[in-house]
Amino acid sequence: MLKLYGEDIASRLMIGTALYPSPAVMQAAVRASGAGILTVSVRRETAGGATGDSFWALIRELGLKILPNTAGCRTVREAVTTARLARELFGTPWIKLEVVGDDDTLQPDVVALVEAADILIRDGFQVFPYCTEDLTVATRLVDAGCQVVMPWAAPIGSAKGIVNPGPLTLLRNRFPDIALVVDAGLGAPSHAAHAMELGYDAVLLNTAVAKAGDPVAMARAFGQAVEAGRAAWEAGLMPPRDFASPSTPVPGTPFWHAANS
Amino acid sequence: MNDNLMTDAPVLRLTVNGEGQQVAAASVRALLEALGYDGEFIAVAVNQSVVSRGRWGEDLLRDGDDIEIVSPRQGG
Fold this sequence. Notes:
Chain B: InterPro entries: Beta-grasp_dom_sf (IPR012675), Mopterin_synth/thiamin_S_b (IPR016155), Thi_S (IPR010035), ThiS/MoaD-like (IPR003749). By secondary structure, chain A is α/β, with parallel strands linked by helices.
């Protein structure tokens, strides 16, 4: 079973709560996905409103583990303060740490990310850092005390799938005891299966489900893909090779002559 | 609005969620009441330091403070 910071999580799918056509569709999609962890955010509340209360009521009905994020933060200080606000709001030491470094790609500022992770871990947080697939960055995050590392497949919301599988495989090989989660850039269930077939422990997605024609059906499809990909990894995939190898036995082929083989 | 909370507090020039406000409130609780925040699930930071709920009654606000009032939202 998936274990994150000592907690058993029944599903290897983590799903976001944003961009759905309606709150009811969001709830139905989350349930259909079978996800075990929900990501949420922290935003300014307006005077006289209780927007946060009504959203939080929807989330609590789902009864899943909550992973708050620091989405939109651009500096170490913003990310650290947002994480502390999230801990106050949600009562969890878990934080999906995001520090944006570039507006067009929403690429993580990995330098600020490592610094913020270090501060938060010393402050008692259990950090889920959203990072690139860079080996050195992942090493710094693990050195800082991260037990989970979450590299992107592709930019957030891009639906491109895994554009750089080699470095993701390298991370898997280098960090056999760290929980690795592909976070961001997945567009199709096959992308999620691909991540799981690389040996990743889980995937985190949002837009691909929320923006699908039928988010509930797509959520179910992603859930099935994650299970299939994980089962394939556990079964042991054969390595690819450059030349053909016949699957039908050659001896006994009609008109076959051993001398020609 | 609670008149008792407003009585003695001097008017402070504060920045609340990025907007300038003039409010007679010395504590976070008084500020929230004065501005009409009635949501239960909110968290507050003053000058980028979180003020936990247990300290909302303390007279810790100062002229020029920068205050963020946040609540749960959808996120990915």
